[in-house]
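Weekly sync notes, structure subgroup
Attendees: PM, AL, DS (notes)

Item 1: joint prediction request from the bench team. They want all two components modeled as one assembly rather than separately. Inputs as received:
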Amino acid sequence: MRYLLLPVSVAAVALALAVLVHPGQGFWIVAVPATGMFAIAAMIAAAYSFRRGDFMRWAWILSAVPYLTASIAIVSTAVFDGGGPSALTLALSIIGNVLAVPGAALFVLAYHRAGFGFGGLRASAVAIYGGGLLLALLLGWPVVTTSIRGLAEAEAPLQPALDLLSTTSDFACFLLGLPLLRIAVALRGGRLSWTWALLAVTKLSLLLADLAFEAAHANAAAAVAYRVIFVTANAAGAAAALSHRAAVAAVYKATR
Amino acid sequence: MTTAVSPPREDDPAEAIAALLAPHLGPHTARNAVRTFCERTLAIPPASLAWASVPRLVAALEPALRTLLGTDAASSLAREILTGVERR
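Output from the run, pasted for the record:
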């Protein structure tokens, strides 16, 4: 539980700074990059608790890339982009959204590659996949179709195309959050369960963030919810990385 | 996320190994891992596992542990299990 304290504290400070320093754009150019950079640092620290050839080192490095591209894209948008996304913002958004999916998939793949199986956790699997797919259908699919409609109706298609890429990537990550949650349930009671559970939180929360974003134009509470979800997802990503590092360190402690 | 675990039977190698894996993988996956690798590697149920066969089982488990815990932690854990066996 100790590894939760630091990310939660950073998220709280980032939110407070965003509100106090610059109430308008402050959130985007302070809180999101601050928590994003913290998540990157935690993921690099987690990656370096593994050897160069270890599967998990590459999973963490790949997972850190979308946080890096998002943080730089947000700052570059605020500083450079006046009448639309610049080439840098465009490139970073594409790279980040595309790499977010394999980054999450590697953690699902790792458990399957280990070959431990799930051993009769059928009821929880039905609940997770049934509930998750229902949520994806009821809440996620309308967000994706709204983005498709936005692209079809747009005169300048660049920004709507980026929005569609982002919502499609978030939708795919939400779907990958379901097996991550199932793995966390299988590992329950073990130190590694925190890593997979917190990763599931980051992926599942993306759909909620998109929903809140859609509602944010007309609803002030949704705008606040969007900000809170975004920073919480960053903090959960950092906590997942720190928990994995702690789980590896705990093996040495237990076997010393 | 902690789950109550019944103490392992000391005379049962499968349960002894699962107990060493449980703090990391959780009791459910620890037992499942031992069962899966007993069946896959030794073609026996975990209840039939003899102390003499534990090194073979651990050698099969180590690459799987490496995927989740990394090379160094997996070999530390494998060594810990084998040391426990040698004490018997």
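Discussion: Chain A has a mean pLDDT of 85.
Action: AL to compare against the crosslinking data before next sync.
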